[in-house]
Specification:
Layout (H helix, E strand, L loop, with lengths): L38 E5 L4 H11 L3 E6 L23 H6 L3 E5 L5 H11 L4 E4 L5 H4 L4 H7 L4 E6 L14 H7 L20 H24 L3 E6 H7 L2 H8 L13 E2 L2 E6 L2 E6 L3 H11 L13 H6 L4 H11 L4 H10 L3 E4 L10 H6 L2 E6 L3 E6 L30
Length: about 400
């Protein structure tokens, strides 16, 4: 495994793609970040793989994004400013591909495959999200790449994993949420199951892929031996429902999940004078505090409502709705949230996305990153969902223009 990374650059005149020794291209990675010195070859498109590599890049890894000659298909997804398609101004691409370099390469052809093998000789990690077997069909499977670089970590991200009867099924976000046990838990009991928004399964899968890759890289750094990391999005989603898997394994009348929606306590979305708030009561003390706050102490005298446990299983909680809503409609969101939180209740308003820019919490933590891009101009994107005191995350460069590193890597 390369200990001190030096990229493999071929000369412009060289038709072969043999590993070579050369000085690193300009723009070396930051040296005071957690993953400084780690080189990652990013062969992914879409969301799950690019989010995994984005997390590594934000922490200082050098991400070489290999795009098809026409570019990552997600460059065409948008949204775009003024709804005018532009492959350099897709908000989707800009967010997921900051802190990366872009090279264009047709790895479906022998010449491109030779170049890719040369690159794999000099990096620590490869992350790909092609269909199972596709890389191997090009002579770029894990066995072939490990023969070139025994310390290489190769992470494959797919909907259902590299093997099994579902391995070659298609798996978009709605498929992953459905078969991963997520959708059955969402929605009202009298309606169809609901999918969570914002491509949730893809982002969760990307985060898990990043974590698994780092674990494998840690092992490779200690032993010199790489490995193949097989990430299944379906399994990622099921791990989010471990308690329900346990309950189902016990059998009996409560084994099957029953959707409750958010129309009644202990988890409820209620209207107020200027919008809506969400309330989630977790413990007996929360239920008693809520009743005292809303003037509903008498409800606690009902044996079916005298504890949070009974409230969770009661079929009569709908009886309380009118009374609760009548009370919340007398108040504004801000007052409800501030007074509820002062009482240590889990309550929050439901902001629109533009509201995030004014959030005092985001401002205090410096969460939102301001980025300057040569084509897209100025924009804001989320930062990392954590703070590292010694090795911070950074947006050191905006998302790359298509093929902008080709000359740097002598691929033109």
């Amino acid at each position: 495994m390369p200990q001190s990374w030096k990229p493999c650059v071929r000369s412009r005149s060289s038709a072969a793609s043999r590993p070579c020794s050369a000085d690193p291209p300009e723009n070396p990675p930051m040296t005071n970040q957690a993953l400084s010195g780690v080189a990652v070859l990013d062969l992914t498109t879409g969301i799950d793989g690019p989010f995994a590599t984005k997390m590594l890049g934000d922490l200082g890894a050098r991400i070489i994004k290999v795009e098809p000659l026409a570019g990552d298909p997600s460059r065409a997804w948008g949204p775009f400013p003024d709804d005018e398609p532009d492959p350099e101004r897709s908000a989707h691409f800009l967010y997921l591909n900051a802190n990366k370099e872009s090279i264009t390469l047709d790895i479906t052809r022998p010449a491109g495959q030779r170049v890719l093998r040369a690159l794999c000789a000099s990096v620590h990690v490869v992350i790909e999200n092609f269909a199972p077997g596709r890389m191997a069909s090009w002579g770029l499977g894990y066995a072939e790449l490990a023969a070139i670089n025994p310390g290489l970590v190769v992470t494959s991200v797919t909907p259902f994993g590299q093997f099994g009867p579902y391995a070659h099924w298609k798996g978009t976000d709605i498929v992953r949420q459905a078969i991963g046990g997520w959708m059955v838990q969402g929605g009202r009991p009298d309606r169809e199951p609901l999918k969570s928004g914002a491509n949730l399964s893809l982002y969760i899968t990307g985060a898990c892929a990043a974590g698994a890759t780092l674990i494998a890289h840690h092992h490779a750094a200690a032993t010199g031996t790489g490995q193949h990391v097989d990430v299944s999005a379906m399994e990622v989603m099921i791990t989010c429902s471990g308690q329900e898997v346990y309950r189902a394994s016990q059998g009996g009348p409560t084994a099957v999940w029953k959707r409750t929606g958010h129309l009644q306590l202990p988890s409820m979305i209620v209207p107020c004078r200027d919008g809506s708030v969400g309330i989630n009561l977790l413990f007996d003390r929360d239920w008693k505090t809520f009743c005292a706050w809303t003037g509903m102490e008498d409800v606690l005298q009902d044996p079916e409502f005298d504890s949070i446990g009974k409230l969770r299983v009661s079929r009569r909680t709908g009886e309380l709705n009118e009374r609760i809503v009548r009370w919340t409609l007398q108040h504004d969101r801000r007052w409800l949230v501030e007074e509820g939180q002062r009482r240590r209740l889990a309550i929050a308003d439901i902001p629109e996305i533009p509201d995030l820019f004014e959030s005092p919490q985001h401002i205090a933590r410096g969460f939102l990153a301001h980025v300057e891009h040569p084509e897209a101009g100025s924009y804001v994107q989320p930062g990392a969902p954590f703070i590292m005191s010694k090795t911070p995350w950074r947006v050191t460069r905006p998302a790359p223009l298509l093929g902008s590193a080709n000359e740097l890597w002598a691929l033109t």
